[in-house]
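User:
I would dearly like some help making sense of a protein record. Take your time, and here it is.
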Amino acid sequence: MTEAPNSLLAARDVSKVFPLERGLWSAMSRKMTGRPMRRVRAVDAVSFDVAEGETVGVVGESGCGKSTLAKMLAGLSHANGGDLRLRGVPLAEVMADPKQALKVQMIFQDPQSSLNARMKVVDIIGEAPVVHGLIPRSEKEAYVRDLLSKVGLGPEALNRYPHQFSGGQRQRIGIARALAVKPELLICDESVAALDVSVQAQIINLLMDLRRDLGLTMLFISHDLSVIRHICDRVVVMYLGRVVEIAPTDQLFSSPCHPYTRMLLEGMPRISTERRTFLEVKGEIPSPLDPPPGCHFNPRCQFKTDECLASRPPLDHIAPSRSAACIRWREIG
């Protein structure tokens, strides 16, 4: 997969492996028995691009590696392998410079635990721009007031603490904090999952308005396909740490090319009187400690062949802006 000419973020074969055993006793036990260290491959050779001004969704069941990927992109965790670049510059170099690191900001899933309970809103939002020299300290209050207005909060919020707000209001504060340092890439990690449905709609509409007004580039991570369909231009589908399909949103929802994507879409709740035909999916999600050989989805796939068990299918380019990791995508799509 070559880097797109207008790519803001490029990921190539990015992997993250977590060791499950630590300490002297584990090391001695492995040495005596000769067994290898047990590891979890949370992200396994993931490749995709995010173009400037685009909103890319990342979907998949719990444990597929979405949040681990988000933390690596935000510099909160280091990749064990592969290449991550922001505007062609290695992400490690970007994160090593405190001012350059501001280019990537993250909105977290839990708006309460992501805010400092001991700080007032004016400091939560205004501290970073002042410390990094984006604004003088004398302009902090006016700057924060303008940001609060952009996210739908009034100036009365300036001198209040996080516990004095509702969940939706706290998430708005988190969005304002992320925007305060003028990022180039905004990573939303399940940023509406902890909110009530009505509040979710408000926050999603707010993000769409901010994207239009500020020209934001976003990576939107969610397990809610209806949210992804509403807000994203393209979708990356992950399963057990691997990317299995990438497609423009409309094409993905109308004609999925991977059996896992089709399974996810058929499981979406919808209001309809039409009879629906479901793709039969057997078994449970395999353990990431012992993933199946070949295609990770093969134990649950009705289209599998001997080749699916023998080798990992590559993420092939199958159409303009579309890729799928399935040797039988023509029969499925």
Summary: The mean pLDDT is 87. Residues 253-333 form one domain. The radius of gyration is 22 Å. Residues 94 and 100 are 5 Å apart (CA to CA).
